[in-house]
Amino acid sequence: MKLPIDMGDFSTYQIAGTVIVASILLFILHVRRRYTYWKSQGVPGPAPLFLMGNTFDGFGQPLHVTNFKNFQKYGPVYGVYNGLVPSLICGDPEMLRNICVKDFHAIPQSFNVVYLHPVERNFLINIHGPKWKRIRSLVTPTFSSGKLKKMFELMKFCITDAMSELEKMSTEDGSFNPKIFWGRYNMDLIARCCFAVSFKAKDENDPLLRNFIEFFQGSPLKLLAIVTLPEWIVKLFRISLFPGKNLDFLRKLTLQLIENRKQAKNEAFNDFLQLLIDSRADVEADENGTQNDIHSTDPPKQNRLTSEEIVSASVIFLVAGYETTSTLLTWVCYRLALNPDIQEKLYQEIISTNIANYDDLISLQYLDAVLNETMRIDPPVAMFQRVPHHNYPVPGHDFVIPKGSLITIPTYSIHHDPKNYPNPELFDPDRFLPQNKELIKPFAFVPFGAGPRICIGMRFSLINAKLSLATLLTKFRLVKISETLEKPEYGLGTILLTTDKLRIGLERRD
Hints:
Helix content: 40-55%
Order of helices and strands: HHHEEHHHEHHHHHHEEHHHHEEEEHHEE
Structural class: alpha+beta
Number of strands: 11
Radius of gyration: 26 Å
Distance between the termini: 102 Å
Strand order of the largest sheet: 1-2-9-6
């Protein structure tokens, strides 16, 4: 009987099998060794799964909930693994000061995204170095006090229109979904203030509204793929957290608006887009943002934006302004409905001040306190990140954060740490009154990030939220109804602390 394997070749199969087994064992040892990094540095943290790291930790629940549970178990600083890459969760305010400010030169990058859609490549949150510095310096003047004051009357017009919609809702069933309502209102306001156009934000069939709803729908599976799959697969299949078709839609929209401006040469515009267009350059930009006109012998221009940079700046402003402000207003309405005594105190401050202009609005101290406390207990963005460009020995500690790893700052966890805020689950705006602000630790309140990379649109967002809330409370009382959840249900697969399942009662004031 002939054997299926020639005995003369048996040694070859034996060697091949030995090599395969040895390779598998070496790979397993390599993985296990990678997973000893934080232990060797003396940093606590949850045990990782083989190859997956801590990606599946808390799968099926909001990211900030997982982070907070680990925060309570391991302390404010602990180590995790994104796949095989060691990453640090840092919720210590003093360490945060070093990471975001003192050592900004060593940790200049925000997020480390494997694949970026062409529109995303010029987002301020995705760039760093000279290019980031140049674009930020050009975009920053848009949010000056002078610019915001000019937009104030337009904001008042928009919120008056929004109150008319609430009047109808209060008459029909006496309640509203704040997430949906404020999302539509903010889209219209941002479009008017920044692009001098009005979108049909109240029309559920409006393509822009549908685009934004799709844009912010979290995808846990997509997030899992980005974290666990090899980088070459993520790049090959162009897996991005933001849907490509929605980014393409916004890009085409912005380019059309720019083209419209070219045709309207005699019409004056005083908005965000026009400021960007005024900084437009007919040049080419290299990957560092250095611009060179190949037809000119003049020195490279550093004070202009390319067309694609204008598109990216416009899109990120639409995206950030739409979601974060509407989320803040959603949570403040919810908290005030659950705390009628605080709502009444705020109402009394508002009606005692005739809000005729920008300066009147920013003088309302309790309004500031209410919004700050809302962002403390329900931060619109539950975390932000930094990426070191060198191995970073942490000052005052005996461990090193590896180059290229992620440092995640868990905003929600920091804001709910009893060492930072006594009785952190209590909604107490008095924490942020002027006489109490000294009690708040530096870098223990970071709803908009921290350091040079703090959110560039923060002031616009807050002015919008203040005016919206002040106007609403002069006309309506927010009340808890049977559909109002005792505890909010947060969305999955997103770093935003968002929800679509809130409903709040509306009572018209006499």
